Amino acid sequence: MTYDTPAASPLDPAALDAADPLADLRQRFVGAESDLVYFDGNSLGRPLRATADRAREFVESEWGGRLIRGWEERWYDQPLVLGDEIGRVCLGAAPGQTFVGDSTTVLLYKLIRAAVDAAPAGRDEIVIDTDNFPTDRYLVEGIAAERGMTVRWLEVDPASGVSLSATQRAVGEKTALVVLSHVAYRSGHLAPAREISESVRDSGAMVLWDLCHSAGSVPMELDEWGVDLAVGCTYKYLNGGPGSPAFAYVAERHHGLRQPIQGWKGHADPFLMGPGYTPAQGVRRFISGTPPITAMLGLQDMVALIDEVGMEAVRAKSVQLTSYAVDLADELLSGLGVTLASPRDPEQRGGHVTLRHDRMRDVVARLWERDVIPDYRDPGGLRIGLSPLSTSFEEVRRGVEAIAEVLGSMA
User: Fold this and answer.
1) What pLDDT digit, counting tens, does each position of 13-48 carry?
2) pTM check: above 0.85
3) Active site includes 265?
4) What domains sit in the chain, N to C, each tagged with a CATH number?
5) Catalytic residue flag (residue 133)
6) Annotation says 236 is catalytic
7) Choosing from 29, 185, 235, 249, which is the catalytic residue?
8) Other CB atoms closer than 10 Å to residue 373's CB: what's the count?
9) Which of these, 407, 411, 326, lies nearest to 365 by C-alpha position?
10) Where does the pLDDT of residue 11 fall: very low under 50, low under 70, confident under 90, or very high at 90 and above?
């Protein structure tokens, strides 16, 4: 890998950090100044310092000062306002197609169920890959059982991920919906979303993308790609905090879908409170209950920071970090029997790298005791999740060296 740096060695972290135009942003995150090595930004991002100030101001002035007046003044529209910001900054989505609210699981259920309920007669199959995130697979199985449909499993190699050709073989005239992850949660494989979306659309089916491991890490153009539906969480690369609400994208052409969880906040006139349900116009109809306004505070700050930097710069730093981790693994871990369980080509890789060894579960447990925090995924996978704006090259070097020390001591 060639880095744009004056370092004599491409593995010199000090030179890489000195040449990094985004290095100073690290100081904006709580805890980044500590010695802890954080390799789990793809599960829970660090909080921004600005969020502590925003939360205090919200409690003291907006919540404490305005009280219920806040709903008329700002909160009622906040799921759509913040959704539009996520769409503009991270998704390549025009206004009016993205909203924030509910958990990832609930939003996936809403959109999967809405899509299959609208499928033409005879389209009674849902296609999903065998290596998709458990929630996605469980939901598809449950909805198929509810609707008397069939699940068509797309067999994939966990190290290489979903391909266009494999998807084309699985999709046919009986397909109602295809559910795939843009970045695979285990390997970090980056699926060819544009090509797959076009192919599925040409077949007469719809596609739903899980963006949990790509939102805020990989640039997207959902409108341009012709994506039908998408859902993503906000506590990973969008740093919204533990349990922060997910977002959903519904292409404008699908705003007539009937969403299955009809709540009062998705009604055309929520305060009419009369008999019968009349859905709101546009993407608001996919909102159900009262939106979690307090839980959106951290998310606002991170979306603003990404907007300041630009997704292309975020992606460039992400590629550098993951490529650096791969090079260090080759140098320090290959002799210990560690293999790469992620694509080696950065163009086919998202924001994390998975290293495989039979003893990685024990390695992760021992690393946590040393304040080195990766996570573990079967079979034998140690995931290095590198949040681009809060992670330094020096931190990556220390972390991989710690893996080598722990694994070497167990030989």
Assistant:
1) 999 999 999 999 999 999 999 999 999 999 999 999
2) yes
3) no
4) 13-48+310-409 (3.90.1150.10), 74-306 (3.40.640.10)
5) yes
6) yes
7) 235
8) 18
9) 407
10) confident
